[in-house]
Structures are given as structure tokens and as C-alpha cells.
Amino acid sequence: MAAPRKQSPGLEKDFVDDLNLPVSARIANLLERAILEGRYPPGQRLREVELAERLGVSRTPLREAFYTLETRGLLQIQPRRGAFVKSVTVDEMEELLTVRVALDGLAAGLAAEKADAADIEELKRVHEAQRAAFRQGDDSAFHALGQEFHNLIYATAGNPKLNSIYRSLRVDLALYPVADILLPGETEKSLEDHGELLAAIDARDSSKAHDIAERHIGRIKAHLKANLPAEAKPG
Predict the structure, then answer these.
(1) What CA–CA distance (Å, rounded) separates 196 from 213?
(2) Any idea of the CA torsion for 187, 189, 194, 195, to the nearest 10 degrees?
(3) Which of 19, 26, 138, 195 is the most core-located residue (most Cβ within 10 A)?
């Protein structure tokens, strides 16, 4: 298990975003982004005093933000212990990916039907950036761009309800406590899958796009189940 990442020094700077929102809402949005970006790994405790000092806020809006993030499924608040980034178990991860197989196939098929020239160009841009990250051995950028690629497909599908369901699943997938583990050979295979999926969407081949997307997530599901350990315990 990789050591927890250090907190990003940019956290305070990011807090200036969304100045029109209440302080607690700004904190909640800031911490949500930090968790989904892996700055706070699953199982890590968020320390009230330290965060309040870093952000220059009192502990009251910070606690309100913690409760907001608990309702969003990102934190677990334990009495007399504090707030911890939620973890997802192996079984929960398998269940999530089972759903993703179906949803990604649907999204890819719809994207192939609805994509316009601008959508295709954006998918190509992200895919080329991911290819460059692979060549440079930049694992962090590779995975972030892969996530962006999938996000674009769901956005291109043009179904708000589907996108909402996907977002809820994406949050849980980000909480599996092995974000730093690189599955053997998975990066190259994922890159190949994305290339094939992009070609199918560009060709407006809905059926092929659907099948490639299902195969892609199905293989990841099988690979995760075979290679990754159980959840880490909060501490």
C-alpha cells in the first residue's frame, strides 16, 4: 500500500474560488475536489485544527462542511475520533464496476449517436494528451486524463440523468484505497481501448462503441478483483 499523499500546498490558494458561496459550501467544494484528486486518500483523517488554520476559518463552518461531505458519501464522521475519508471495499468496488459496465456501454452508444465535430475534437485532444503522458511515464496525468476522457463521453451522451448516476459512482470509485497502485499492463491496454472507442464514436458506430466500452470496464473489473487488496482501515 502506498504511503498517504501529502496535503497539497495549493489548498489555501484554491479556497479563493466561489467567493459568492457561503464559507462552509466553499470548504466542502474545496475538500471534495481534493479528495477526488487523491490529495486525501481513503482512510485519512481530516484534522479540524490544522485545516481551520490553513484556510483561515473557524471550526464551525469546517464542521458544517464535513457534514455536507458525509451526506455526499465522501467522509465518515466517527464520534470522538473525527472525520475520515471514506473507503470502499473490494466487494463494493466489484458491485460499482458491474454497474459501470452497463452504464459505460450505454453512454458510449449514445455518444456515438450524438457527438458533433467539436465533441470529437475534444475527445481526440484528451486522448492525445493521455498518449503523451503514457510516453512520458507520468502515471498521475495518465489517470487524470483517462478520467477526463470518460467524463467527456458521458457529457457527449447528452443524458443528464445518466450523467448524474455516473457522477455518484465516480465518487465511490475514487474512494477505493489503492489509487497509487498501477495494475500490470493496464495503462497500455486502457490507452488502446480509448483509441478504439474514440474511433467508433468518430465513425458514429453506436453498436461498436457500446461493445468496446463494456469490454473496457469489464476487463478493469476482472483485473481489479484479481490484483487488488481489501480496503484500508481508517486511522
Answers:
(1) 9
(2) 120
(3) 26
Residue 110, domain member (yes or no): yes
Please identify, among 85, 107, 125, the residue that sits at the C-terminal boundary of a domain.
Answer: 85
Q: What is the pLDDT along the chain (235 residues), one digit of tens a residue?
A: 333 334 444 555 555 556 678 999 999 988 988 887 778 888 899 999 999 999 899 999 999 999 999 998 899 999 989 999 988 777 888 888 899 999 999 999 999 999 999 999 999 999 999 999 999 988 778 878 888 999 999 999 999 999 999 988 887 777 765 544 456 677 888 899 999 999 999 999 999 999 999 999 998 888 777 766 554 444 4
Alpha-helical (H) ranges within 177-205 are 186-202
* Domain of residue 36, residue span: 11-85
pTM for the predicted model, two decimal places: 0.71
Domain count across the chain: 2
Helix 186-202 / helix 90-114 crossing angle, nearest 10 deg: 30
